Amino acid sequence: MNRMNSKRILVAAAALAVASLSLAGCAGGDSGDTGDGGDVTMTFWHNSTTGDGKQYWDDTVAAFEEANPGVTIEVQSVQNEEMDGKLQTSLNSGEGPDIFMARGGGKLADIVAAGQVKDLTAGLTGATTNDVGAALNAFAIDGKNYGVPVSILPSGIFYSADLFETAGVTEPPATIADLETADADIDATGVAPIAVGAKDAWPAAHWYYNFALRACSQDVLDEVATSHEFTDECWLKAGENLEDFLATDPFNDGFLTTQAQQGATSSAGLLANHKASMELMGAWNPGVIASLTPDERPLADLRWFPFPEVPGGDGGEGAMMGGVDGFSCWVNAPDACVDFLNFIVEKQNQEAYATAFQTLPASTAAQSVVTDETLKNILDAYNKAPYVVLWLDTLFGQNIGNALNVAVVDMFAGKASPQDIVDAVNSAAAKS
């Protein structure tokens, strides 16, 4: 089964300009028509547990309910690191939430194969398909659509410009050697060079993903999207390059027990409070960091640069790793679920989403609202990227992806070799 195209999964950005913000208007279909012949109650799970993000979803749900009399949406906030496991348990029980987070790739393909997610193809409005465009590809399985994206999330390294200046680092590192030099200069000031929340596994694994992005050719990355096996020698080379980087001791003390996004001592919190200088993360990070600064405001000196180039690899220069956050409907969800997904990608709602989460909206019609220089730089790098590859754990699905992430964390802990990472993935793929 052709599960996913791993090339251009994100949307090219429109020209950036200031735009006005407002919430909602009318639903994606006829206002008030639930398509279900009576009052409807739906459950909705998202991963925004605090601050502006949580308020955005509360406001958006209220606006949809007002525009659609007879529809009630019961909202539940689920901590991001708990979402996958809790969702899978709920879906397997046959009582999945009607509306839930989805990120495409193998994870989505697995629940499609299990008959747990609704085919949205016929229900998406022309406005949705036109404005969201290529980002829908992340949720396409065998020519049908099973999700709607709300944000595009290319990754890279976020950093504190003030801490760089204090350490005498005058330019963002362009190569991995430059990054190692910057790490040493920053460490000499008493600040952790890079924060990583390895307790949550995936933030550590993202380091391997990006080393693989630099080591492996586009053809190899395309092939692994369907084979889910590490057969090319570049996968081993990526692990060896990561092992060499780990030997330079670039991360915060206690990184194996550090969480990614919860509290001041998380990896995002360390950067937010100038206890660490950098963090490798996706484009949602500015909003997370803002919620963890002392005044809960955006970090004024936050900047970004692409993952450094690694000499000797076959990856395309400027290629990026990234993802798409979106939402799907449970297979037995009422038709109003599809109306809600059309609604959340309307221009006004996408503009409000980008502002609330300080991130990049999936809708090209709403991208003019992005004025933050850091996010604009991310979009610029994305537009110049020869291709963008989906997070490997998302691409592979939960079982293989978890095996990969655990093996990488074991390397971070000094308990696994580059070959162990390759073996873990191939073993998990053989069982899938």
Automatic annotation (TrEMBL):
Which keywords has UniProt assigned to this entry? Answer: Signal
Q: What Pfam families does the record tag this protein with?
A: SBP_bac_1
> Which Gene3D superfamilies would you find in this protein's record?
Periplasmic binding protein-like II (3.40.190.10)
Task: Say yes or no: keyword Signal present.
Answer: yes
Does the entry feature the keyword Acetylation, yes or no?
no
Task: Read off the SUPFAM superfamilies from this record.
Answer: Periplasmic binding protein-like II (SSF53850)
Q: From the UniProt annotation, give the residues forming the signal peptide.
A: 1-24
PANTHER family from the entry? ARABINOSE-BINDING PROTEIN-RELATED
Any idea what this protein is called? Extracellular solute-binding protein
